Amino acid sequence: MTRVFARQSAPGQTGRTAGTCLSAAILISLSLVVTGCGTRPGPDVLQPVSAMPVNAKAVTVYVATTRERSSANSNVFTEGRDSKLNYARFTITTPPDHKPGNIEWPKRGQKPDPAKTFTVASQATLQKDAFKAAVETSAKAYKGDSAPIGVFVHGFNFNFQEALFRFAQLSADADIDGVPVLFSWPSQAALTGYVADKESVTYSRDYLAELLTDLAQTRQKGKIVVFGHSMGGWLVAETLRQLKLTGREDVLSRLSVVLAAPDIDADVFRQQIAVIGPMSPPMTILVSKDDRALQASSILAGNQRIGALDIADPEIQAAAAKEKVRLIDISEVQSGDRINHDRYIALATRYPKFTTQQNEVGLNNVGAFVFDAAAATVSSPFRLVSAALSSAQ
Questions:
Q1: Which string of b and e fits 31-49 if b means at least 16 CB within 10 Å?
Q2: Which string of DSSP letters, residue by residue, matches 317-358?
Q3: Of all helices (H) and strands (E), which one includes residue 195?
Q4: Rounded Cα–Cα distance for residues 331 and 245 (Å)
Q5: Strand runs labelled E in 10-74
């Protein structure tokens, strides 16, 4: 790629100066997370509740995970790494007054209430063959052979129930006719676990490749949409590279890949893309230059993170076109946290309108684009500037 994806330190920071600023940046970012997240949900929220309101919306999520089960046949998954994939199925309901973008958790010490909170209606432990058969059956129930499968790969600092309920919320809010499949890797679910989490995503590469291969073989038609957030974006990109190196073009050709705020070193991404090559449709990368979590990560690594690129830079626009990827700046989307790292959540409710209008710019094109939050459309940054100048005259 061009030099914009080459190794570079944070401006004006080298040696000990960068290290000192690193501590301050990380402490600021993490303190914002701590003050915003409150008590984390425990495995008690996974217990099924039988009585459901008639107007509760239900979403069935299939799970493949490298996390260990807490005990045999249990669907409580820990931060431990298993030597095989574990499979499960959860049906989750949203409360009648659910607010898009939110997960209505039970209050501390209270049981899930389907009238007020997200609730597990049912769950099942699955073996691999049963998992594949269930996904196929569910897909046909939607749109037959053309029904897509959506695979969600969560990011850093997620426990299992947070990842599961987040994907249920995204699926419910987007209201897409497809099959949700969660790939959950063994995050430590701790703010101090960044290094351990990076090791766990590395550990999980073979297993994500196994899952995508199984889904591609099970579903002979229809797209498999792979959505990776933050550190999960690094895992997705590494898995694509591995599939390419092992000659699995049959799997890669079935994938439509979206990386949201990917926590990927610029040099690493350049090497990944060089191996993976162009994809059809092109790989889409959702970026925000004011993502404070990735700014802290950039200081930690001493290099730019791909999810925090500024697409107003002509060199970045040229690099995206050259490498045949699609960068979409989503900075206009309101963030649900104070570090601007979760804007992808708010996109779920806009997804139907977004997809029906995407032909405006032809999203099979590559390059840099800006998401217009008001219109839920994507435009070239040049077109947006032109429209602004015209309206000012």
A1: ebbeeeeeeebeeebbeeb
A2: HHHHHHTT-EEEE-TTSPPSSTTS--HHHHTGGGHHHHHHHG
A3: helix 194-203
A4: 34
A5: 57-69
Residues in the chain: 393
Does this model's pTM top 0.90? My answer is no
User: CB under 8 Å to 383, separation ≥6 — which residues?
Assistant: 361
Q: Which residue has the tokens 């094109």?
A: 365
CA distances from 145 to 136, 142, 167 (A): 9, 9, 23
Rounded Cα gap, residues 266 and 230, in angstroms: 14
Beta strands in the chain (DSSP E): 57-69, 77-94, 119-126, 149-153, 179-184, 224-229, 255-260, 284-287, 326-329, 367-372, 377-379
Per residue of the chain (393 residues), what is the pLDDT tens digit? 444 554 444 444 444 344 444 444 444 444 444 334 458 999 999 999 987 777 788 999 999 999 999 999 899 999 999 999 999 999 999 999 999 999 999 998 888 999 999 999 999 999 999 999 999 999 888 766 778 899 999 999 999 999 999 999 999 998 877 899 999 999 999 989 999 999 999 999 999 999 999 999 998 888 899 999 999 999 999 999 999 999 999 999 999 999 999 999 988 999 999 999 999 999 999 999 999 899 888 777 667 899 999 988 999 999 999 999 999 999 888 887 789 898 999 887 766 555 544 444 445 688 888 877 655 556 554 333 323 223 323
Structure tokens at 220: 């002979």
Contact 234/267 with Cβ under 8 angstroms?
Answer: no
Q: What number of other Cβ atoms are within 10 A of residue 362's Cβ?
A: 8
